[in-house]
Design brief:
By secondary structure, the protein is an all-alpha fold. The chain is built from 6 helices and no strands.
Length: 135
């Protein structure tokens, strides 16, 4: 974690202590991953809340495998809105920017963390067939 980002996280946690520093770092890395997934080669690297959540899911599953849900919960992340709160905490202190039309509500809904981060690791016969839950 860069010193500048560590300082931003420190300030964000002083304002909102629901999330561990690891959660902030994960969201930052997942944002970069989502930009690469959805905006590779484009000048504008901005992604929507739902695109960030898709990139977040993809990155977390690849990085943490069957431990994904356990780690997310330990770091205070239980749903997409938690990812949004981290993004908006970093926006409020000036570390991230936002586009007009972006809102915290963009992170609400989406997918269920329990399903998205456990189902890909279940035996095939126990998986539901829902899009976006396979690694």
């Amino acid at each position: 974690m860069s010193p500048l980002f560590a300082q931003a996280v420190h300030h964000a946690i002083q304002r909102d202590d629901r999330y561990r520093p690891e959660a902030y770092d994960l969201v930052r890395v997942a944002l970069n991953h989502a930009s690469e997934m959805f905006r590779q080669g484009q000048e504008d690297q901005h992604v929507s809340g739902q695109e960030l959540l898709a990139g977040f899911r993809d990155y977390v599953i690849k990085e943490f495998g069957p431990m994904s849900l356990t780690l997310l919960n330990q770091w205070g992340l239980y749903r997409g809105l938690d990812v949004g709160h981290i993004v908006y905490n970093l926006i409020e202190i000036g570390y991230f920017g936002r586009n007009e039309g972006d809102s915290l509500e963009d992170f609400d809904g989406g997918y269920d963390f329990n399903t998205a981060f456990t189902e890909p690791f279940l035996p095939a016969k126990d998986r539901q067939s829902s899009p976006g839950t396979t690694p």
